[in-house]
Amino acid sequence: MSRYLAVGLSALVLAGCGSSSKKELPPAPLEKFTAEVSLERSWKRNIGVGQGKLYNTLTPALDGLALYAADARGRVVAMDRDTGSVSWQVRLKEPLSGAVGAGGGRVMVGTLDGQVITLDENDGSELWRAQVSSEVLAPPQTNGDVVVVQTQDDKLVALDISSGDQRWIYEASLPVLTVRGTSTPVVSLRQVYAGLASGRVVSLAADSGIPLWEERIAQPQGRSELERMVDIDGDLLLSGQNLYVASFQGNLAALDAESGNMRWQRPVSSYVGPAAGFGSVYVSHANGVVEAVDQNRGNSLWRNESLIRRQLTAPVAFSSYVAVADFEGYVHLLAQTDGRLVGRIRVDRKGVRVAPIALGDTLYVFGNSGDLAALKLK
Q1: Tell me, what DSSP letter sits at residue 19?
Q2: What is the four-CA torsion angle of 227, 231, 234, 235, rounded to 10 degrees?
Q3: Residue 257: C-alpha distances to residues 103, 188, 241, 253, 275 (Å)
Q4: Which residues lie closer than 8 Å to 208 by C-beta, 6 or more apart?
């Protein structure tokens, strides 16, 4: 039997709000405001069934001039990032749950049955497959030497980028109850950083898997296993010498990336990762609050509470704004200076679950139904 239990997003939102009521509160209605900026579609393309029926978070990936996306049934598509024109597409015979990683001439995806599949960036031809211990829910990552994947049972596995042979494995103890999902490992030339279901962050040597440091971000509290969940499911953010990380029912923290020493932390419950820009760290709380925190001191700069319970994606810094998407498929733009709403566009009526990707003046948004749109500021 599995050593973990899956918890749905609605339960996460309810727990994140700390409500004791048996009736879940509805999402906040959309607030009326005077738009100061608008987004227009540059192009749109459908990527199969999108996220599918399971609670997948299949995130596209940019590498050079190419944009890669995948759907839950195994379709992988390579596109020109500027025009959306398709360079190649393949249909794998496996349902995907972890996608997409790209780099080192490779496109990498993970499957529900624990396979890592690596394709050639040029034409989509399959290079190798490797079996790991359990389902892969986050995109595999590479530094050009190894492909690192984090499995649902909290193992980190490094595979040789050329052959797929296992180079090393790191095993962490798994709590009794965890959220279904993992953060995406951050892989540099020398180090691998990963957030664990236990509320800890680890740094490993990229070439050998030897642990370099470990730091606890959140301490389990409460009587029930649900109350004691402190998973780090959001992506870690490496910015300069700092590593920023948020945990569910825990903290938002800044760590020294080299030593792991804690620079600051503040109470935050989030199941998505932070973003950075204009000297701030931005985080979407589990209850829908969007907050900006000073990068250096960790004090709150502003909070926007108009999107409560709208199941927000991780934020992304975009031009002078912070972009988040919600369960109804709206993309909201907030001013980085004070958090006020300045723009909004709907991209997918089935919602958006994965964070937008920002590059220059373009915002790429992958909706749950499979529509992938490139939006530009107007």
Answers
A1: -
A2: 160
A3: 22, 11, 6, 12, 16
A4: 168
Task: For residue 95, give its domain range.
Answer: 46-171
CATH number for 123? 2.40.128.630
How far separated are the first and last CA of the chain, in Å rounded? 53
CA distance 355 to 363: 10
Rounded to two decimals, the pTM is: 0.92
Q: What is the pLDDT of residue 378?
A: 87
| Lookup: tokens for 164 | 């797929």
Give a yes or no: residue 244 inside a domain.
Answer: no
Cα 95 from Cα 110, distance rounded (Å): 9
What span, in angstroms and rounded, lies between the C-alpha atoms of 323 and 310?
14
Q: How far apart are CA 272 and CA 292, in angstroms?
A: 15
Q: Say yes or no to pLDDT of 206 above 70.
A: yes
Question: 315 in a domain, yes or no?
Answer: no
Residue 182: inside a domain = no
Torsion of the alpha carbons at 41, 238, 199 and 193, rounded to the nearest 10? 110
Q: How many CB atoms lie within 10 A of CB 102?
A: 25
Alpha helices in the chain (DSSP H): 9-17
| Closest to 245 in 3D by CA, of 296, 281, 191, 286 | 281
pLDDT in tens, 298-346: 999 999 999 999 999 999 999 999 999 999 999 999 999 999 999 999 9
How crowded is residue 220: how many other Cβ atoms within 10 Å of its Cβ? Answer: 15
Q: How far apart are CA 81 and CA 360, in angstroms?
A: 12
**Is residue 49 over pLDDT 60?**
yes
**Cα–Cα separations (whole angstroms), residue 214 to 45, 151, 172, 314:** 42, 19, 11, 24
Number of domains in the chain: 1
In a domain, 252, yes or no: no
- Could you tell me how many residues make up the chain? 378
